[in-house]
């Protein structure tokens, strides 16, 4: 039997892109349906940001206290897993609550386009057709599988790696991007012997080497072995573990571990099953959907946001685009501006970046001044026993306008927002240097880095 519903805005997917879009659409007074084939909250809430950060926080507590137990149970990792589950459920409940209070209707099932104004939603034992004025695609992404190392048995994707029942005695991580580094360090802190194989010359590619150095130092203190410029080629699995073969400098090597975790990127969910060809929407060769400054696709009433569009595959980028798309549908002139998307690695120490790096400015031949200050003599960092790291602020050397910033150190994930705001507001290093920061706080290091850049500018004008 096929039931029918009608709506103004149909949102496909309830991840950070989809739920934010549905909430904004409903707030703007449009009748809104959000359809989800899996758990509410998408990857981020269920198998991404939230569970990984819950386990990472538990791993830090365990590493710091070694005897860390929540309730006196004998297995700290099982307790960490239970804690993670509770956090995920709470967050998923929060997403549902947000959607319901905004007035959006949640429909469970898998959507497939019939035409530019209709989808068919497959539900257990029934189908529901929904006609809509506008649709927002927020179908997200899934882990990329290597042909030579298909997921299953001893080869894990990030999803399985977040739900292991025990800490593996040993773990090979293939891919040293942020997910590989975060999960690798988490398991190392719980006691795994971790080896990271990275294809490029450095883990965390995209971050400058001076920023990554303190993270690498910590990783090796955690007992992690990093092998760069290594390509995994094949593996044999048995009941106890996996033997992985890789090539480095044309020489073949083998390593053995209980599990291998493959974190080599994510593929957009824009397959045939969504029926995009029926509406004349064709993804790029990488499966991405092209959009304009309002997140509109080539089909005027269809928008696309989040991991299925270009740019960094991050939750806050998805929810930012969500607001733009919903407001565009609501007739508002909102457009995207990507100059200040923060990137964060929840490693120890944390790493974050916003705007342009010094290297990117040099490549573009922009006249820049770089201000630096370290956490080494910051009173709060001393009290927290977390003095490692520094702040780097990149500004235009003639105007002082802040172009970018990078932080490695305690609370880099939280501190970076101030620099994002500075970039958004067109602030100069003098503005930041003259902003009174409370003492003693980690934020003072940003003020001092700005002061360092301002002083360099002043000196160069005097000379
Ligand atoms: P998703 O969250 O992928 O949601 C898409 C939803 O659409 C899914 O629930 C899916 O079931 C649904 N769907 C797909 N097709 C259909 C269909 N046909 N019908 C109905 N429903 C459909 N990002 C950060 O910013 N910070 C982090 O710390 C961070 N950590 C991460 C850690 C890990 C281990 C992983 C894997 C990812 C992490 N990310 C992080 C990335 C982040 O999770 C994604 O960028 C984000 O979830 C993308 O949001 P989205 O809305 O585009 O899609």
Automatic annotation (TrEMBL):
Bound cofactor: record note: Binds 1 FAD per subunit.
Domain of life: Bacteria
Top-level class of the enzyme under EC nomenclature: oxidoreductase
SUPFAM superfamilies: FAD/NAD(P)-binding domain, FAD/NAD-linked reductases, dimerisation (C-terminal) domain
Reported cofactor(s): FAD
Family as reported in the entry's similarity comment: Belongs to the class-I pyridine nucleotide-disulfide oxidoreductase family.
Keyword NAD: yes
Catalytic activity: N(6)-[(R)-dihydrolipoyl]-L-lysyl-[protein] + NAD(+) = N(6)-[(R)-lipoyl]-L-lysyl-[protein] + NADH + H(+)
Protein name in the entry: Dihydrolipoyl dehydrogenase
The Pyridine nucleotide-disulphide oxidoreductase dimerisation domain, residue ranges: 341-450
A UniProt-annotated Pfam family: Pyr_redox_2
FAD/NAD(P)-binding domain: residues covered: 8-322
Gene Ontology terms for molecular function: dihydrolipoyl dehydrogenase (NADH) activity
EC number: 1.8.1.4
Keywords: FAD, Flavoprotein, NAD, Oxidoreductase, Redox-active center
Gene3D superfamilies per UniProt: 3.30.390.30, FAD/NAD(P)-binding domain
InterPro entries from the UniProt entry: Class-I_Pyr_Nuc-Dis_Oxidored (IPR050151), FAD/NAD-bd_sf (IPR036188), FAD/NAD-binding_dom (IPR023753), FAD/NAD-linked_Rdtase_dimer_sf (IPR016156), Lipoamide_DH (IPR006258), Pyr_nuc-diS_OxRdtase (IPR001100), Pyr_nucl-diS_OxRdtase_dimer (IPR004099)
Organism field: Cohnella hashimotonis
Other facts noted in the record for this chain: The active site is a redox-active disulfide bond.
């Amino acid at each position: 039997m096929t039931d029918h519903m009608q709506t103004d805005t149909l949102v496909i997917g309830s991840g950070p892109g989809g739920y934010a879009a549905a909430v904004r659409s409903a707030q703007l007074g449009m009748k809104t349906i959000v359809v989800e084939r899996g758990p509410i909250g998408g990857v981020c809430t269920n198998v991404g940001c939230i569970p990984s950060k819950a386990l990472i926080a538990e791993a830090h507590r365990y590493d710091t206290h070694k005897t860390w137990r929540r309730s006196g149970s004998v297995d700290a990792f099982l307790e960490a897993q239970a804690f993670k589950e509770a956090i995920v459920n709470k967050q998923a409940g929060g997403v549902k609550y947000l959607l319901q209070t905004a007035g959006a209707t949640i429909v469970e099932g898998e959507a497939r386009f019939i035409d530019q104004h209709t989808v068919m939603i497959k539900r257990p034992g029934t189908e529901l057709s929904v006609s809509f004025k506008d649709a927002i695609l927020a179908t997200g992404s899934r882990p990329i599988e290597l042909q030579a190392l298909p997921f299953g048995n001893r080869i894990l994707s990030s999803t399985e790696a977040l739900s292991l029942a025990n800490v593996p005695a040993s773990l090979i991580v293939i891919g040293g991007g942020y997910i590989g580094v975060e999960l690798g360090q988490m398991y190392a802190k719980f006691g795994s012997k971790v080896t990271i194989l990275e294809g490029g010359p450095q883990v965390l590619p995209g971050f400058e080497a001076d920023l990554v150095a303190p993270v690498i130092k910590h990783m090796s203190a955690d007992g992690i072995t990093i092998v760069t410029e290594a390509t995994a080629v094949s593996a044999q699995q048995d009941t106890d573990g996996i033997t992985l073969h890789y090539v480095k400098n044309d020489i073949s090597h083998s390593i053995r571990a209980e599990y291998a975790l493959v974190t080599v990127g994510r593929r957009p969910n824009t397959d045939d099953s969504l029926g995009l060809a029926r509406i004349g929407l064709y993804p790029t060769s990488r499966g991405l959907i092209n959009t304009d400054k309002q997140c509109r696709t080539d089909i005027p009433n269809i928008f696309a946001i989040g991991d299925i569009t270009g740019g960094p595959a991050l939750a806050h980028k998805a929810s930012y685009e969500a607001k733009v798309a919903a407001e565009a549908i609501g007739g508002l002139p909102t457009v995207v501006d990507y100059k200040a998307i923060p990137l964060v690695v929840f490693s120890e120490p944390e790493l974050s970046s916003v705007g342009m790096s010094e290297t990117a400015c040099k490549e573009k031949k922009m006249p820049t001044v770089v201000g630096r200050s370290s956490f080494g003599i910051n009173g709060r960092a001393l009290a927290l026993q977390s003095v490692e790291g520094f702040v780097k602020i990149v500004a235009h050397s003639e105007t002082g306008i802040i172009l970018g910033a990078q932080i490695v150190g305690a609370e880099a994930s939280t501190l970076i927002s101030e620099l994002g705001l500075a970039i958004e507001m067109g602030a100069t290093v003098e503005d930041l240097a003259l902003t009174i920061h409370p003492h003693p706080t980690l934020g003072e290091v940003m003020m001092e880095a700005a002061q360092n850049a301002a002083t360099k500018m002043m000196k160069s004008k005097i000379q």
